[in-house]
Specification:
mainly alpha; single chain; 4 strands; two-stranded parallel ribbon
Length: about 270
């Protein structure tokens, strides 16, 4: 994350003759209903990059991350108490978290949060409605979440890439992001295209600036995290995944996503 002051960006441009590109990333930006409208208000010409992965692996990863964060907080002596406005929180295991995120109460909170415009937000809505572990189902509704940004910023300012491509071949994406932020119109579709041949150690030059595209620290080659779920929940998760795959295909058609770059988990 990077938040330079306006005077710092002005000074950088005066000295170097180049615009300062500012990047900020968080998994919750795509998921939290109120984020898109606030980002649009503050940076109306922002370029949006959304990384997507197998929904089942995403749920397992987020559960593991939050569980570890809770243990870390407890190790620092932070109080384990939960605010009174939280609903059935925190869930005790992954299956409870999935049920909670798919409940009517949580869906209602997410709908309410879509109407928030800031700058001040109610406690129940941050960092995501009812807390981090209440949005697992919403987090993997990629098409629904990405549509908000496409509608707000336009399809030409939204880049979608499988997380595996960010690790395996980041050079293409870095080039596309650079052109996007410079205001250029990409000649290729606005989704990271893995069909083009660029080395994992790809280097490209823009305005005499060399950018080394090294292999990123992602999980493309790692064994997918497993979900420990009951047969009924496993069936529900698979049904939800199939539905999301269909919605993603519709989205890819809208933003001219190349068929050669469809994530492998969509074909399973």
């Amino acid at each position: 994350m990077c938040f330079p002051l306006v005077i710092e960006r002005w000074g950088y441009q005066m000295i170097t003759g180049k615009r300062m590109h500012v990047y900020d990333g968080c998994a919750q930006y795509l998921n939290s209903p109120w984020c898109c409208a606030l980002i649009k208000k503050v940076t109306p010409k922002a370029g949006i990059i959304a990384g997507i992965r197998d929904p089942k692996s995403q749920n397992a990863s987020w559960w593991k991350f939050e569980a570890a964060a809770q243990k870390w907080g407890e190790s620092l002596g932070l109080p384990p108490s939960v605010p009174g406005f939280r609903i059935k929180y925190p869930p005790r295991n992954l299956e409870e978290a999935l049920k909670l995120s798919d409940s009517k109460e949580i869906k209602s909170l997410f709908e309410r949060a879509l109407k928030l415009r800031g700058p001040f937000l109610p406690s129940w809505a941050v960092p995501t409605p009812n807390g981090q572990l209440s949005g697992l189902t919403q987090m993997t509704r990629y098409s629904h979440n990405i549509h908000r940004f496409v509608d707000a910023f336009g399809p030409k300012r939204v880049i979608v890439s499988p997380v595996s491509k960010l690790s395996e071949n980041p050079g293409i994406l870095l080039d596309r992001i650079s052109r996007l932020l410079d205001g250029d119109s990409p000649e290729t579709p606005n989704v990271s295209d893995g069909s083009r041949e660029i080395s994992k150690e790809s280097v490209f030059t823009r305005q005499d600036t060399r950018i080394e595209a090294k292999k990123l620290n992602a999980t493309s080659s790692a064994k997918p995290l497993e979900l420990t779920l009951s047969p009924a929940m496993e069936k529900a998760v698979n049904t939800s995944k199939r539905r999301e795959v269909e919605e993603l295909r519709k989205l890819f058609s809208k933003i001219q996503h190349p068929e050669a770059n469809v994530p492998s988990w969509m074909e399973q």
